[in-house]
Amino acid sequence: MGFIKKLFCWVAGIFFVTFVGLMGLGLWLKSKLPTTDKVALIKVEGVITTADEILKKLKKVEEDKTIKALVLRVNSPGGAVGASQEIYRELIRIRDEYKKPVVVSMGNVAASGGLYISLPANVIFAEGGTITGSIGVIIQKLEVKKLADKIGVEVKVIKTGKFKDVLNPFKEMTPEEKEYLLRLEEDVLNQFKLAVEENRKGKLKVKVDQIADGRIFSGKQALEIGLIDKIGNLEDAIAEAGKLAGIKGKPVVVELKREQPLVKRLLGTDLKGFSLFDGSTTIGVYYLMY
């Protein structure tokens, strides 16, 4: 019995040493192989509620020296102003500081915040029927005062200033409060307009004030006014990115995806409940198409 136990230990030890040795050899060989210049692909889909995951991917683009260009696939009606601006700022950094070309491929819709994050691109592609534009700001407030009155619910608010509960759903908004929020929206809208002017300088064929009223455009209309650069699909955008980066031939594309939790990879779900509204973002300032 003791012999069998020793034999098992020897076999296990040899297997372990061999396994580690082969892994080390594989890593060494990989480090000696010539690197291939690549184009990174990042997809932004749905309402933009947070920038965290996209920023992680953009950091990889910055840090990976084999990635020579970025294609941002945008299929989004926009979302929170702060998150959109975070993504926008990082794309500016990739384009200007890291000198890596950025190309945007618009999907079905790239409107409001979806357009905003597209603006830093060296070249913007869209299909003729893509919906874009919607340059504007919206603040949403759920008002339930009448319902609360019917069921006899009264909410007492103790506040430090007259505008502190301006978005309180249990009260009607006063004209003064509406004026206050409109001034806030005007400031945020001006930031959007400035981003359009700075990034589409020499390309935009109309004054930004003419289109900054929330209206939407088809891709064809956006091309006519200089809001986008070319009609084309994702493959056209990838080819353009490779060309701008000086990559010869068809570029190698690496899609940067979100790393899924182990539970989701095994079960196909993260076991979290689904909700029509994100409670953390139902109140706020949005670059969002409605």
Helical content band:
40-55%
Overall shape = flat
- Looking at the overall shape, the CATH architecture of the domain at 35-136 and 200-257 and 281-288 is Alpha-Beta Complex
- Provide the residue-averaged pLDDT: 86
CATH homologous superfamily identity of the domain at 35-136 and 200-257 and 281-288: 2-enoyl-CoA Hydratase, Chain A, domain 1
**In what range is the share of β-strand residues?**
15-25%
What is the tally of helical segments?
A: 10
Name the CATH class of the domain at 35-136 and 200-257 and 281-288: Alpha Beta
Description:
The strands form 2 sheets. Strands 1, 2, 4, 5, 6, 8, 9 and 10 form an 8-stranded mixed beta sheet that branches. Strands 3-11-7 form a 3-stranded antiparallel beta sheet. The model is unreliable at 29-34 and 265-281 (pLDDT under 50). It has a domain at 35-136 and 200-257 and 281-288: 2-enoyl-CoA Hydratase, Chain A, domain 1. α2 runs parallel beside α3 (81-96). The protein has 290 residues and is an alpha/beta fold. The protein contains 10 helices and 11 strands.
Record the SSE blueprint.
Blueprint: H1 2-32, E1 38-45, H2 52-63, E2 67-76, E3 78-80, H3 81-96, E4 102-111, H4 113-116, E5 123-126, E6 131-133, E7 138-140, H5 145-151, H6 175-199, H7 208-211, E8 216-218, H8 219-225, E9 230-231, H9 234-244, E10 252-255, H10 262-267, E11 284-288
Parallel strand pairs: 1-2, 1-10, 2-4, 4-5, 4-6, 5-9
Antiparallel strand pairs: 3-11, 6-8, 7-11
